[in-house]
Amino acid sequence: MLSSLVDKSILIRDESHRIVRFRMLETVRDYGRQKLRESGEDQQLRRRHRDWYQQLALGAEAGWVSDRQPYWTARLEREQPNLREALEYSLAEDTEQAAEAGLQTAAALFMFWTFRGLYSEGRRWIDLLLDHPAHQSVPDRVRALHAGCIVAVMQGDSSAAAALLEEGHALAEQDPTPMTQALIAYADAGVAIYRGELALAASSLERAVGILDSNRQGFLYAAALSALGSVYALAGNTEQAIECHRKILSVTEACGESLFRSTALWGLGVAAWQQGEPSRAAELLEDALRVNRRMHSPLIAALSLETLSWVAGANDDAERAAVLMGAVEELQRSMGNPSPILPMVDDHDECVRTTRSALGARGFDAAFRKGRAMGMDDAVAYALGEKPADTVPASGPAVALTKRESQVADLIAQGFSNKQIAAKLVISQRTAQGHVEHILTKLGFTSRAQIAAWIAEDAERQAH
User: Fold this and answer.
1) What is the pTM of this model?
2) What's the CA gap between 248 and 385, in Å, rounded?
3) Is residue 338 helix, strand or coil?
4) Is the N end or the C end of the chain the one with fewer CB atoms within 10 Å?
C-alpha cells in the first residue's frame, strides 16, 4: 500500500542513514485533514496519534540507561514533529486523559531535551502543560514540576525555578511517596546550587540518591548522582566527587550507556584539574568527548570543552584556550542558555584574564571568533587534535541543500525568524521550523548564526 501511495505521489519516501520515513506534501496533508474532519474521524485519529507517541516517549525513558540509548536519541530526534503534534493535541483537549498524556510525555522527554540542549522547547511545553485546565494527578504533576524546575535552573531563571519548586513542595505534602520526595529533593538541590547554598544542595541530593538507589538503571539515579558529584566538586570535596562519578561509570559501562558515562568522565576530569593534575584532566575530558560522539550532545561537548580551555590556559597555550572558549559560547548560545555553562565561574574568569593578557585584546578576540565559527564536530576534532581549526565549516560547499532549503538558508542569513520565513515563502511556521532543523542537521551545525556564516562564506567563494 505504501509503495502504491508513493507511486501516486501521495507519499514521499525519504531515506537517511538507512532509515526510511514517509511524509506528505503540506497541501496533501491539509487536504487529508480536511476530509478527516468532514468524516468525523479527526478527533479519534488525533487521540490515537497522541497515545502512540506518549507510549514512545515512555519507552524511551524506560530504556534510557542502556546500550539502546543511541537508538532512542536518534528516534526521538526524528520524531520531534510528531511529538510536538501529540503535545499540542494534549493541550487542545480539555480532558483528564489529555492532561495526563501531555504531562507524562513531557516528563519522559526531560533527559532528551536536557542532553540535546533543547531547554527553551522543554520549558515551553512543560509550562503550557502545567497550565492545562483539566485535573492532573499529583505524581504526574510533580514529575513535570521537577523537570521544569531543573530546566529553568539550567537557563539561569532561578525565580521561575523557585516558583515551580514551591508548588512541588505543597503537592509532595499531599502525596509523600518516596518518588515524590526524591524528585522534590532533587529540585531543591537545583535551586540551591545556583544560590550558592552548597551544603543544602549536597544534603538534598544525598537524600534523593538514597531514595533512588533501589533502581540504579533508572535515569533519575544517574542524574542525581551526577549532580551530587558536581556539588561536591564545587564545595571542594574532591574525593567524594570522584566516588560519585566512579559509581556512575560502574553502572553505565556495565550496560553500555553513553551520556551519563560521558558526564562522569567529565566530572573526573574536573576532579583531576582540582587536584593539580592537568595532564590527567585532559585525558579524561578527551575521553568524555570521544564517548559523546555516539550521542552528539551539545551539553556534554560544552562542559568538556570549557574545562579543557582551563587546562590549555594553565599550559600557556592561550590561543587554544581562547578558541575553545569561543566554541563553548556558541554551543551555549545555541542551547538558549544565557547563564555560565558551569557554576565554577572563578576558573572561567581566571582563564579569560590570563588568556587575554597573553594574546592581547585583538589576538584574544580573533581566536575567540575562530572558535565561535566552528560547528560542534569541528570544535571537538580541534580539541582532540585531529585536525586544525577551520573558520570555514568542512561541511560547507560540499553539502547539497534542496531548492527550498537554500531559500530558507538565505532568509536565515538575512536575519528572518521562522515566522517571517513562513510568511515570505507562504508556508506554515511548523514547516519553516522543519526546514531549519533539516538544514542544521545536513550542515552539522547547532545554530542559525553558523548557517548565516556559511551562506556568507559561500557567497564570497562564488564571487571570487
Assistant:
1) 0.80
2) 28
3) coil
4) C
